[in-house]
Amino acid sequence: MSLLQEAEAPADPPTPASPRRSSGGLGLGRYILVRALLIFPTVLILVTLVFFLMRVVGDPITASVGGRLTEAQLQERLEEAGYLRPIWVQYVEYLGQIFTGNFGRTITDNREIGDILVQYGGATLELVFYALIVAFLVGVPLGMVAAYFRDRAPDAVLRILAILAYATPVFFAGLLLKLLFSVWLGWLPLGGRASSRVQLALGRLDDPTGIYLIDALRSGNSIIIGDVLAHAVLPGLALGLLTAGVFLRLVRTNLISTLGNEYVDAARSRGVSEFRLVRKHAYKPALIPIVTVMGLQIAMLLGGAVLTETTFAWRGLGFQLAQYLGDRDFVAVQGIVALLAVIVALTNFIVDVIAAIIDPRVRY
Asked: Which of 83, 104, 139, 348 could tie 295 with a disulfide, CB 3.0–4.6 Å?
């Protein structure tokens, strides 16, 4: 057959391609399932560690109120609470209580741990929210500046500040902030979540949430809102700067990596300025890793909340945990820590799912 005849001959009909299913949804579904299943061993390990560490110091009743009871009364309390039984029996029973949502009762004031969460959890949640706002507003822009001035003086200064922010103990940073802004300058209150007058006003609202900012906004009173925000500035700064240092270095590293991609080089070859490349093209991909580590930062903030709330008399879960530690009420400590472990595990799961939706590379 000549070339002309071959060109004019009808082509063989194409073989129908076999249908291909996108694995994106399947991959995401499998990833969510795996992450959900990992919640249980994570909580189990944390609860087990807390249980046996608390038992190292002895039984909780003797540690808490043993000096105020006679030997007969102490033995009676121990028998009622089940602390005379073998340790493995106590452990199995405690796990059964945890998985039914019963985190125990405190020894000093005989309160349900769940009630403590309801009463004080909103305050800790509010403090963590303020800290995250500070971390984003400080860490992300400074990370972009550090990447823009890579390996120059501003970059070196910002990296040192990031290390100092992360390494400085929260309580020490809180004391310095109180000394500067409350004692020397007199701009902000020393501590507390609100003034006594504002707390009374918020307590009179219908169905208060326990989150003062939300309740203040519901009141519509600018004086109340201003008072609540003024009390939140220093605790939010003290706790937020801890995470801001992490965000700064994370954004800087990922932004420098993103600026080396081909599409950024193409934009640079078209005459786009370096500042515009950082601000318009590279910073959004660089923010994705922040979402992936957000769960770890939430856990760190909850740990830092104990010292922050104690330093600023911010009556949340961390403040109550410190009080129960002082009273040697290890049942309360064990219950609150186990409850926080569940919260951290669930938070990590939610953050991992969000990160997988934003960046498909996470789930493969």
From this structure: 348
Distance in angstroms (rounded) separating the CA atoms of residues 285 and 280: 10
CA distances from 362 to 9, 14, 29, 252, 288 (A): 50, 37, 13, 20, 10
What's the CATH code, domain 26-169+235-363? 1.10.3720.10
Percent of the chain exceeding pLDDT 70 equals 85
Tally of CB atoms within 10 A around 183: 9
**Lookup result for tokens 């600018």:** 222
Phi and psi (nearest 5°) for 44? Answer: -60, -45
In which residue ranges of the chain is pLDDT below 50?
1-23
Closest C-alpha to 193, from 233, 145, 136, 223 = 233
Q: What is the pLDDT of residues 136-156, one digit of tens each?
A: 999 988 998 998 888 899 999
Distance CA 165, CA 150 (A): 20
- Express each pLDDT in 249-282 by its tens digit: 888 888 888 777 777 777 777 777 777 777 666 7
pTM of whole model > 0.85?
Answer: no
Instruction: Give the span between the Cα atoms of 209 and 228, in whole angstroms.
Output: 14
Provide the pLDDT for residue 17.
44
Nearest-angstrom CA–CA distance, 253 and 243: 16
Identify the residue whose tokens are 């706002």. 133
